[in-house]
């Protein structure tokens, strides 16, 4: 479903973030992308999300050449296929939970009823409905995380990309996040988690751990 073929990424003149990566992710798989800081994990996620283009090689999702899409089509591809959970959540602090979650739906021009149904469903699924009118800056870390997860899922994407999702969470909240991942996997989402958090390295519902070191694959 997702294929990286001979992918290299060089930032600027000579920062080689990825070096000839070949990787495949199947539909419904949960993969942990493991590696120390700077190894190239976020770069892989950004390439799959169409946020970056490889310097060479190809990224295919459902046989579509994501790495060759013009920017406009990349945005549409992301909207239709990708839910991105960022380490720092990337929420707008002054907006309410509900307004933050609505943002990915704005370009779709849904009528009010349809919008309401989608929002309520996703807020209930990730247990943040009771805070819907509260500004995100007034939430706890775990609540912000759940808002970010709800926003990433409001378009019902089939691919979830999570970049160091537990970096700002304590162990209890990290374990809660892991339960949420398990639920998302049961919905047949394809999930890629980039992390160096050991909590992810011994989970029975993780299909594969892929290790990356200095932009190269260690095992797959
Ligand atoms: N926009 C950029 N410009 C220049 N160099 C970059 C840029 N983004 C990443 N890099 C470099 O590319 C390499 C890989 O970075 P990347 O963010 O993919 O690693 P990572 O494994 O996700 O790290 P972390 O866990 O710290 O987020 C690093 O050496 C980083 O400094």
Automatic annotation (TrEMBL):
All copies of domain ABC transporter, residue ranges: 2-218
Pfam families associated with the record: ABC_tran (PF00005)
A GO cellular component entry from the record: plasma membrane
Keywords: ATP-binding, Nucleotide-binding, Transport
Keyword Iron-sulfur assigned: no
A GO term, aspect molecular function: transmembrane transporter activity
Residues in the signal sequence: none
Protein function: Part of the ABC transporter FtsEX involved in cellular division. Important for assembly or stability of the septal ring.
Similarity section: Belongs to the ABC transporter superfamily.
Protein name: Cell division ATP-binding protein FtsE
């Amino acid at each position: 479903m997702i294929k990286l073929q001979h992918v290299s990424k060089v930032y600027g003149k000579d920062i080689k973030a990825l070096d000839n990566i070949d990787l495949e992710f199947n539909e419904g798989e949960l993969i942990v992308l493991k590696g120390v800081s700077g190894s190239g994990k976020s770069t892989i996620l950004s390439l799959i999300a169409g946020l970056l283009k490889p310097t060479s090689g190809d990224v295919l999702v459902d046989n579509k050449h994501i790495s060759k899409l013009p920017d406009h089509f990349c945005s549409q591809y992301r909207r239709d296929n990708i839910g991105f959970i960022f380490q720092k959540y990337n929420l707008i602090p002054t907006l309410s939970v509900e307004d933050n979650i609505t943002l990915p739906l704005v370009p779709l021009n849904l009528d009010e009823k349809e919008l309401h149904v989608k929002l309520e469903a996703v807020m209930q699924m990730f247990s943040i409905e009771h805070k819907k009118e509260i500004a995100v800056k007034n939430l706890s870390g775990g609540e912000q995380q759940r808002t970010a997860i709800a926003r990433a899922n409001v378009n019902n994407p089939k691919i979830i990309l999570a970049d160091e999702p537990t970096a700002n969470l304590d162990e209890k909240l990290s374990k809660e996040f892991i339960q949420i991942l398990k639920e998302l996997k049961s919905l047949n989402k394809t999930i890629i988690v980039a992390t160096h958090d050991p909590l992810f390295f011994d989970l029975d519902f993780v299909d594969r751990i892929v290790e990356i070191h200095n932009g190269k694959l260690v095992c797959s």
